[in-house]
Structures are given as C-alpha cells and as structure tokens.
Design brief:
about 300 residues; mainly alpha; about 70% helix
C-alpha cells in the first residue's frame, strides 16, 4: 500500500513528464532504426572515432578522409562518444542519446517553472510547460536528428537558466560562491556551442542585479563569471586537443569564419574585425536576441527601481 501511495504521489506531481515519456516512445521509437543520411552521419561517425581512438576523427569523403568534427566546442561529440562506448553504436543507441537529452531538458524546464512560482501551489504549470516543450513537433524532430541543437545545447542552456534563477534567490550564499557556480553553468553551455550560449551573458547581469549589487560590482561579477565559464571550457578542451594533436582554437575560428567569407585570416584581430563585415542577416540573428534580452533587463531594472522609490 505504501508503494502504491508513493507511485500515485509521483504520478500526480509529474504527470506531464510521464506523458512526455510516452510521447517520445510513441513517435520516435518506430523511426529509430532508419538509416542516417547526408549531414546526419557526421556526428555519429565522429563520435565513433571518440569511442575508439579518443578523438573525433572520421571519414568525410575522398577529399577529407581524416576529418575532425571540431567545428563547434566538442562537448556533444565527446558525450555521444562516451554514450556509444557504453551502449554501442546501433541506430537505436545513437538516437536514444537525443531522446534522453530531450527528456532531461523537459525535466529541467519543469524545475525552472517551479522556481518561478510559489512551490506550494498546484504543479499544473510545471507539467504543462514540460509537456508543451517535449511534445512540440520541432523538438521531437530535433531529438531524432543527431546534432548539437537538439541534444546537449538545449539541455545545458536550460540547466544554466535554472542555476541562474536559483543563484539570484540564494541570499544565504556569498557573492563569490554565486559567481563561481553561475560561471560553471555558463561554461557548460559554451562547451556545447558558442553562438547561442553567448545570449546567456545578459542574464548573468540580471542574476547579480537581483542580489542587489551596485553597478560596478554587478559588472565586475558578470565579467568574472564569464571568464570562469571560458576557463572551464578551456580547462578540459585544451589538454585533450594538445594530447591528440588537434587545433584547440579551431572551433573559435570556424565560428567566426562561418559567418563571412571575406575574412579568412587566422589571427585573432582579423577574426574580431570580421564582425563588421557580417551580412545584415547574420547581424540580425546574433544581435536581435541579445538586444531583446538587454531591453528586458533594462525594463525590469526601471520597474524595480520605481517600486523601491514608491515604498521608500
């Protein structure tokens, strides 16, 4: 009876996640054994290289028979390589990694919503948020395709957001401890992909603003947390790259050079000046989300300042 009672309690609290799990089983497993096609083969083959040799080398056609899948920070390809090492390289196994990451992201979203509301209230909003995310057709498609954007990237972005929210509410922790923890969360995100993760930087500022820091300390702590995140990424990637004789700076060069064909130099200065030559569509893609987050941050800042003056 006690076990049945606990099961009922879990089902009542997590019914959205339970339905999400059933949706994944129903929609994805019947297509799991379909062959990988075109670009979909790149990361699984590179991950097999990780599981066998320790670095993501794979056959990428006659012109690149020993290609390296380090176009982006290689957390994804190394995570998938470890997964293959443990569970094999069948289609079910490889696509199962995407399903796990999708379900885990829904689980984190559940707790993000829980942090944003009164935990004593009904858990309907938490369950509906997780269910809405996982059941969306584009998310299900991304879970089936072996790429960064549907696996580790949303998972670690969501995890960073959850840790940011908790850090902004942790009044009993020192500012240095909060800076270190959110820095590590940011480091996990940029270890997945540079471009999207950079949008977390304005939210770093909001974490320290919520903790009531003055402007100069807010900026200093945000910069320090960003540096901690970058150092975290470099601390595991650079030793691996050096050991296996890979160019550790290549993911940075690829990210910059993929946006413009006008800038092909490898120097850091020329890569940075390449931002100026980006086409308008790329500037919009990179700049608009950052601008929206910055405007949101400023609006919240103004609203809270006015509320403080009203109560003084």
């Amino acid at each position: 009876m006690l076990l049945i009672s606990k099961c009922r309690r879990v089902l009542k609290d997590y019914w959205g996640l339970f339905l999400s799990f059933l949706i994944i089983l129903y929609f994805l497993i019947p297509k799991a054994n379909e062959p990988f096609i075109m670009d979909e083969t790149s990361f699984p083959e590179a991950a097999k290289g990780v599981s066998e040799k320790g670095f993501p080398e794979f056959y990428n056609g006659e012109s690149r028979p020993n290609d390296l899948a380090i176009w982006h920070p290689p957390l994804y390809v190394y995570s998938l390589g470890l997964w293959i090492r443990l569970l094999g390289d069948s289609n079910y196994s490889i696509r199962g990694f995407g399903w796990l990451c999708t379900f885990a992201t829904g689980f984190v979203i559940y707790y993000i919503v829980r942090e944003l509301k009164d935990p004593s209230n009904s858990r309907a909003s938490e369950n509906l948020s997780a269910l809405f995310y996982i059941s969306h057709y584009s998310i299900l498609q991304l879970a089936q395709v072996n790429d960064i954007d549907g696996t580790v990237l949303p998972l670690f972005i969501a995890l960073a957001l959850l840790l940011f929210i908790r850090a902004s509410k942790a009044n009993n922790r020192s500012d240095l401890a909060v800076t270190f923890s959110v820095g590590l969360a940011f480091g996990l995100a940029i270890s997945s992909k540079f471009t999207t993760s950079l949008l977390l930087i304005p939210l770093l500022c909001f974490v320290f603003y919520q903790r009531g820091l003055r402007a100069w300390r807010l900026i200093a702590n945000s910069i320090l947390a960003t540096i901690i995140g970058v150092l975290f990424f470099l601390s595991w990637w650079v030793p691996i790259a050096i050991y296996f004789k890979m160019d550790w700076f290549f993911p940075v060069k690829f990210t910059f050079q993929s946006f413009t064909s006008k800038n092909q130099s490898d120097s850091i200065l020329s890569l940075l000046t390449g931002f100026i030559t980006f086409p308008p569509s790329v500037k919009l893609w990179l700049g608009l989300p950052t601008l929206l987050l910055s405007v949101l941050f400023l609006l919240l800042l103004i609203i809270e300042r006015r509320n403080l003056k009203k109560w003084e």
